[in-house]
Specification:
alpha+beta, two-stranded parallel sheet, 2 strands, 9% strand
Amino acid sequence: MPRTRAVVLGAGIIGAACARELSLAGFEVVVVDRGGAAAATTSHGEGNILVSDKGPGPELQLAQLSRRLWPEVLAALAERRAGGAEAVEWEPKGGIVVATTAGGAAGLL
């Protein structure tokens, strides 16, 4: 039985993540980008998954999920392909947010 085909437009982090999930779900995936992989917006993010610069809400929740999942994705790459994880730049970093008011501190809890 033929696999369902999907085309993903854009080879940045979002396109790559969509292609990965589609592939894991059994789709045959083609990724198309006018430049190269991660050549546009993704390349300007310096490989950061920033959590400390987000206020409470959906953006913070997405950043926290991304930070939690990234090591799992790298481990899966390493299992599937020798050198797979080494081909990805990942340097886990911390950050600090300083509150200058009681109200600002309450938002950090």
